[in-house]
Design a protein that fits this description.
7-stranded parallel β-sheet; two-stranded parallel ribbon
Length: about 325
Amino acid sequence: MSIKKRVLITGAAGFIGSNLSNSLLQNGNYELIGLDNFDNFYSLEQKKKNLAPLTASADFKFVEGDIRNMDDLLSLGEIDVIVHLAAKAGVRPSIQNPILYQDVNVAGTQNLLEFARQRNIKQFVFASSSSVYGINEHVPWHEEEKLMPISPYASTKLSCEMLGHVYSHLYGIRFLALRFFTVYGPAQRPDLAIHKFFNSIVKGQPIPVFGDGSTSRDYTFVNDTIKGIEEAINYDQSDFEIINLGNHQTVTLSGLIEAIEKVCGKKAIIDRQPEQPGDVPQTFANISKAGKLLNYHPSTDLETGLRAFYDWYLKNNS
């Protein structure tokens, strides 16, 4: 009988963390330690709902703790792989409170890397972000692009990538920075556009649309992102990599709203707002490296993904 890999997932009660945990438990080859500090960015109730099906498994142990607290980390026991998803999220809130974002995202990640060094944990998978590319018209973006982040959130993610390079170089920790591109799907955070738009359209409330609707995003369904993370957990061909996990499709904001209207069968009431500082005009991933290194081939089209989210939304908002 093979020994199960012990995986620490930070941010396990969140959107991507809970979906990843569920997928790894179904795989049957992993024992999971889920760490979360129940940050108040959105409701504790949704996070507890995300955790409920996981805690029923004998292979899942939940620990309430903070990545900035070394004592919390040292209490976790044996670990083979760290998947670091916990962060202060969001471009716009980071502009309001940049020092907190620096503390949680950068100091927290360094603390985890230091924990990995002390415990001789050799595999570290980090959730980076497409926001590191900033404003760059040279699309689709490949991993060697010049990076010009335009928000504190984006700069923290870039800082963490570079910290990972330092610890990989000095201490032989394999560090994989996965740049996520606008992940959506069941259990998505309520502050993100797709969740907000469905919620407002269903309730007949206006949706705030920043700019003229021409901004575009590479929307990636969460199950596709998770397949990439799972491959990264077991990747062993090199010691440091930065890899885009996008969908290699780009959809305008207006196009997204039309697709959501089609799924829920109601028209949106548009509340036109000025463009927001820190928002980039487009994101668009070149995913050839992910295909080569992680056998990553996203397969979920936008309408299928939106329907999956809407089914989850109706179940959780009845």
